Amino acid sequence: MSSTNRTAIRHDNDYYVTPLQTVADFFSVFRLLEPTFCLAEAHILDPSAGGDANSPMPYPSYLSSIGNRTVTTLDIRRDSKAAIKKDYLQWKSQRKFDAVITNPPFHAAIAFIQKALSEVRPGGFVCMLLRLNFLGSLKRKSFWLQYMPKWIIVHARRPSFVKGGNDSVEYAHIVWQKEYMPEHSRLVIILLRTVKNDATHSY
Ligand SMILES: C[S@@+](CC[C@H](N)C(=O)[O-])C[C@H]1O[C@@H](n2cnc3c(N)ncnc32)[C@H](O)[C@@H]1O
Q1: Is 63 among the domain residues?
Q2: More confident residue, 70 or 193
Q3: Average confidence score pLDDT of the chain
Q4: Is 48 a pocket residue for ligand 1 (Cβ < 6 Å)?
Q5: Fewer CB within 10 A of the terminal residue: the chain, N end or C end?
């Protein structure tokens, strides 16, 4: 959720639209960090895909733009553009995915991450856009001891969520790899905007 707008504009189900540029920045860097993972061919689940009459689903839109035709989209809202309208936490997947990637509802982020990790194949990825202060709470100590991320990809330029206003907190895409439990996470900072669709990278 955007903290700037948290009190001013209330959205049901923690619905905020991630800027397409933030999504493109993340994928551009992820593709460099994990060059053997073929994003265009991977079967990917976006379990809180978002979208509405005025906005596309940001992660599926990017993946579609690079030729991926196998993204499964799900969201709890009836007005979402997702193909499956369900509560992700109640939904039973019939298959394993190569990756689960989304900006989850902040109030249920831990539950989303744990469920996503149970639904990716060994070696697959779980990538979630989270506030940086998600890293800091002692109440999540047991979670971090069990699930150490591989990458923390910080967006130094804050995403502008609703109505174009910059949020007052920093965000990172946090990336876990199934069955890979590093002693430490690796930090990458995206300093400049990447050019759309990966022409150049600055991070
Ligand atoms: C922060 S928004 C992000 C939307 C979209 N991923 C994006 O990046 O613009 C969180 C989304 O989670 C959805 N959501 C909330 N609770 C959910 C649940 N239990 N199961 C599935 N989707 C949920 C909301 O409807 C909303 O679309």
Answers
A1: yes
A2: 70
A3: 88
A4: yes
A5: C
Domain with 125, as residue range(s), is 13-202
So what's the pLDDT on residue 196? 53
Three-state secondary structure string covering 18-75:
CCHHHHHHHHHHHHHHCCCCCCCCCCEEECCCCCCCCCCCHHHHHHHHCCCCCEEEEE
Residue 150 lies in a domain: yes
Distance 183 CA to ligand 1 centre (A): 31
Interaxial angle between packed helices 20-33 and 58-65, expressed in degrees from 0 to 180 and rounded to the nearest 10: 60
pLDDT value, residue 166: 56
Hey, is 132 helix, strand or coil? helix
- Domain presence at residue 7: no
Q: Answer yes or no: is the C-beta of 105 below 6 A from any ligand 1 atom.
A: yes
Count the domains in the chain. Answer: 1
Q: Whose CA is nearest to atom 16 of ligand 1?
A: 13
**Distance between Cα 91 and ligand 1 center (Å):** 14
Give pLDDT, residue 160.
80
CATH code where residue 173 lies: 3.40.50.150
Point out which residues pair with 177 in neighbouring strands: 125, 180
Rounded Cα–Cα distance for residues 172 and 63 (Å)? 19
Q: Which atom of ligand 1 is nearest to the CA of 102?
A: 6
Does residue 4 sit within a domain? no
**With a 6 A CB cut-off, is 16 part of the ligand 1 pocket?**
yes
